[in-house]
Each structure stands twice: as C-alpha cells, then as structure tokens.
Design goal:
Elements (H helix, E strand, L loop, with lengths): L6 H14 L2 H10 L7 H21 L2 H27 L2
Length: 91
C-alpha cells in the first residue's frame, strides 16, 4: 500500500526541518557563550535567501513557505545577535 502524503504536509515538514537545522548552532552558542566559528557572511547570505523565500511565499500566498522561512529568519537574527554579543565579550 502506497502512502500518499499531501504536498502541503511535505512542504511544512521540509520547512520545519530546514529551519530547525540552525537550532543546534544557536543552542551551542548559548551554552558555550562563544561564537568563534560563526561566519557572519554565511548567515547574511542565508538570511538573504530566506528573505527571498518569504517574498516568494507572499507572492504565491503560500503560508507554509512564509511561516517556516520567517522562523528561520528569526533564528538567523538570534545567531547574529549572539555572535556579535559574544565576540564583543571575548575582546
């Protein structure tokens, strides 16, 4: 028997997993109170792509794309804030 999963459910799961992939980095930074290996450039490029995904989701009126990428954007902002905070405190 073939399991048929609606494409919206697949999109939501994919978005959640992609967004959640940054959580271990965020938790590690909080736990260790350092961000020595976090590249600001990488996060800025990633946030640019995520912003375009949000825009694309808005144009298509696709809430799974909008919500999961907005969540990812917030995690990226948190990581950049912690990166700057811990870089300043290590000087």
């Amino acid at each position: 028997m073939l399991l048929v999963i609606p494409k919206t459910v697949i999109g939501i799961i994919a978005g959640i997993l992609t967004s959640a992939s940054l959580l271990p980095q965020l938790f590690k930074m909080i736990k260790e109170k350092q961000a020595t290996n976090a590249s600001a450039g990488m996060f800025i490029v990633l946030m640019s792509g995520v912003s375009l995904w949000i825009w694309y989701g808005i144009m298509k009126n696709d809430w799974p794309i909008i919500i999961t990428n907005a969540f990812s954007f917030l995690i990226n902002i948190a990581i950049l804030i912690l990166r700057n905070k811990y870089k300043k405190s290590s000087r």
